[in-house]
């Protein structure tokens, strides 16, 4: 009789699931989402599957599925040629996004007030200082970096709201705002006198004072400043439609 342990039956591995393909699809989706949120792509830019697959060093399939998912989330749009592009900047979409973001993010700020600690507020001050430093040396090529710092500031507050329903909604809204993030960075580059994140300080003060009315007003001012600058440029005919 052999002293070796019996070979495990195939059914011993029955609780394991395949993870490679699904994980790859999710990683591709997350990378494209991150790039969209932070304005890495220009409005109207066509995203070609083969180019994306080569850049990400993956096959076409996970790219195709990620793009389809982003189209369903209104972050990308399908053209008549069946290619996919970043949506163009339009005044109607700008107004719609601005209104939705003020509503949803305003509620998250209200919910977050009672959960933010002194340490959290100190972190928000450090993040705002980092944002100011980044915007002070901003050029279009650095738009992604500055957007990431601004994103970290806002979502530090929104996560504190502890809303499992609203947080995915605001993430979707930021995903759709990508082209406007990039254009705002371009506008701030041309107008260095415009303070990009000074409303953050007012928001922090309102959060420290536990004033939901003041906090929501500061957030609304922060959101609408960039959108208003873009709208003004659009009306002057200086942005692509």
Explain this structure to me?
The protein has 241 residues and is mostly helical. It is built from ten helices and three strands. A three-stranded antiparallel β-sheet has the order 1-3-2. The chain starts with 19 loop residues before the first helix and ends in a 6-residue tail after the last helix. The model has no long low-confidence stretch (mean pLDDT 86).
Strand-and-helix sequence, N→C?
HEHHEEHHHHHHH
General form = globular
Label the structural class: mainly alpha
The CATH superfamily of the largest domain is known as: GntR ligand-binding domain-like
> Rg from C-alpha positions?
22 Å
Largest sheet: 3 strands, antiparallel
Give the count of helical stretches. Answer: 10
Query: How many independent structural domains?
Result: 2
Give the % helix.
55-70%
Distance between the termini: 80 Å
CATH architecture of the largest domain: Up-down Bundle
Mean pLDDT, to the nearest integer, reads 86
For the largest sheet, list the strands in their spatial order: 1-3-2
* Spans where pLDDT lies below 50 across 5 or more residues: none
What is the third-level CATH name, the topology of the largest domain? Answer: Four Helix Bundle (Hemerythrin (Met), subunit A)
CATH class of the largest domain: Mainly Alpha
Beta-strand residue percentage:
under 5%
Please provide the count of β strands: 3
